Amino acid sequence: MKINLQHIGKCLFQFSIFVSVMFFSITAFSQVEKEKLFWSATRKLKAEDFEIKLSSNATGPGFAQFSIDYSVNGFDFLTKNFNKRVQNYMIPAASTIDTTQNNDAFLNYQQSLFDISEIYVRRFRKALRENRKQALKGTDYAKQLNATILSDFSKRRAEYSNATNFGTNLVEQQNWQRLIHQELAALENYAYEK
């Protein structure tokens, strides 16, 4: 039996390239996922989640950068569940916090904004599910729905911020937290985990 060392060497080289590509792809995907802090019913925002640390109150106590993402194509409308297709996350690397002050009210305020964002993400998921046939005509429906959801979320965020004076009016903050909790519970079937 004759062994072709040149052929074996070529196969090993191709295999090592394949393994390298897979390793770098997995590493890159993992890094992208680490750059996102997904909304969670059980995990609340902490000061450590804000990667840009400020030591001056000149710009306010800070800012959390939230994002609503969706990935929908023609074949997705064959599924009954869109919960994994619409995501709600914070971008820690783009979020700031003033480390020189007590941040309890700031963190409650930002968590409430994150929760309000989750309400609108769940409404987005619900609308996609209920209007699957409309969406079969193309992804324009999802784009239009996304624009509507983002606009509605922005209006609600402003309403909440004004009513609670950016989370500093504790009575109004508690009222809003109860309302937010009720709305999240009403849309529980559209949570990412479901």
Written overview of the protein:
There is one protein chain. The protein has 194 residues and is mainly α. It folds into two domains: 1-34; 38-190, no CATH class. It contains five helices and six strands. It has a three-stranded antiparallel β-sheet, with helices on one face. It has a three-stranded mixed β-sheet with strand order 2-6-3, with no helix packed on it. Helix 2 (104-130) packs parallel to helix 5. The chain is elongated. The termini are far apart. Mean pLDDT is 81; it is low at 7-32.
Radius of gyration: 22 Å
Please give the count of helices: 5
Mean pLDDT: 81
Tell me the span between the first and last alpha carbons: 58 Å
Element order: H for helix, E for strand? HEEEEEEHHHH
Q: Which strand order does the major sheet show?
A: 1-5-4
Shape: elongated
Helix proportion of residues, in percent? 40-55%
Low-confidence stretches: 7-32
The count of domains is 2
Structural class: mainly alpha
How is the main sheet built? 3 strands, antiparallel
Number of strands: 6
Strand content: 5-15%
